[in-house]
Design a protein that fits this description.
Helices cover about 60% and strands about 10% of the residues. Bound molecules: adenosine-5'-diphosphate (ADP).
Amino acid sequence: MRLLLIGPPGSGKGTQAIVIAKHFGIRHISSGELLRQHITDQTAVGRAAAEYVARGDLVPDGLVMDILRKPVEAASKEGGYVLDGFPRTVGQAESAYLIAKDLGARVQVALYLDVPHDELLARMMRRGHTDGRSDDKEDVMHHRIEVFEELTTPLLDYYARREILVRVDGARPVEEVSAAAIAELEKIRPTLT
Ligand code: ADP
């Protein structure tokens, strides 16, 4: 299964991606984690991406596409992937589609973890900071949520039109969200081509 996870910052997307990857025996690929690793290692990509990530802005498409190409291609040959954090714009989705369709790596399902704006803010206030990530400060979190609403939500329409969008209510306890996501994906698994 080749799956894309879409959800705002604070939706629990990373957590669900891990559970889903384990259930279906597929690879979890997180664009955010890969970028953070490049930044820690101070690679050329990391140095170019650092200031965007720190501000909560999207890093330029070319950088993200570069670091994802190999892992996505490899995972596609080994049963599939849960892609967490990419694409984040319709432009990225269109570019990726052109590359992926020739590689047999094209997305089959887009799963949207739906968490309303107010609930995201409530979670953010409750936990203060999360993993000690430097982009988890309150003002940067606000900006990341804005960027999601402006640039990423148009993706929902994009995948709905292709009839591969599945929506799960993400404003529930982690285990309930996982169970609902897996149930929905199991339902459509036999129809995937
Ligand atoms: P979240 O979705 O919770 O904000 P991520 O770990 O997915 O966290 O992303 C962290 C940061 O990495 C983003 O704010 C952005 O700067 C960068 N990033 C991740 N994926 C992409 C992408 N597909 N395109 C551009 N920037 C990205």
